[in-house]
Amino acid sequence: MSEHHIVTPATYLKVLIALAVLMVLTIAAAEVHFGEPFNLMIALAIAVTKAVLIVLFFMHVKYSSHLTWVFVGAGFFWFIIMVALTTADYLSRGWHSPFTG
Amino acid sequence: MSSTSHAEHAYVAHHFHSAEQQKEAGTLGMWLFLAQEVMFFGGLFCVYAVYRLLNPDAWLAGSASLSVFVGGVNTTVLLCSSFTMALGVYFAQTGDNRRLFQALVATLALGLLFIAIKLQFEYLPKYREGVFPGANWGPYGHHYGHLADVANQGGLQMYFVLYYIMTGMHALHMIIGFGIMVVLMVLARKNTFGPQRYMAVENFGLYWHFVDIVWVFLFPMFYLVR
Looking at residue B59, which CATH number applies to its domain? Predict the structure, then answer.
């Protein structure tokens, strides 16, 4: 653990440029028709990448203690559980059961 | 108390062992708050996922009526404000209160620009042309008239319910941030911050970046449905 790590403006600028490039990329990807689930998956993958860059560098988590990592991870982990289980329910409601036909 | 040196007494509260422990506690407390914010917005994202699954046609039509250009400009504005905020944290850590003040002014200005664009080019034109869910729902006019021809009007209204609530909650978080920024600007003017004392700026930075992350997801979810 590197204590009192100060992130420099040069690093922040690189992250800003990366975020801008990813934003252009996500707009460009939306103009191409990749078929049903793929446009959504690409858009989400780019959004997650941007969020990770912001969390690691702008929010200094890359340089934070392991306990901070646990706190950050717990919040997003519970969010994923909530969305995954809820959408799994709604997605599977129209499916036929092998037992009831 | 024993591990606290004499010089540290000035800024380490008596219930902390050391400056390091005090900083760690402050960071963890802020992340605990942000985890709660993830849950708060998470509920909305969850509702969004379900209604999008149930109304894919309405989501396509609703999204096509939004301007990717305006949304893209606002995304750029917000990313830049996150950058100036990050610079502000750097200036607080290095004790440059004058530049910190300037960074906060830039962040506030970009935040206000975001809200102004949102109102002038998005909320108000939609509201005027009947694109507002509820009893007065009824899109008309040159920009939004075609929305009246969408078969699934209920689904389309749900799209705009979530559009207004989620972007509105995001905007409300920004407006709360404006107030905190003004307080930090006053403190920076009084040369409050330095290498030993910057947690207020750092923790507000965490809040501001979190609000930025919410927008990073809102942008593709509302503007780029294909």
Answer: 1.20.120.80
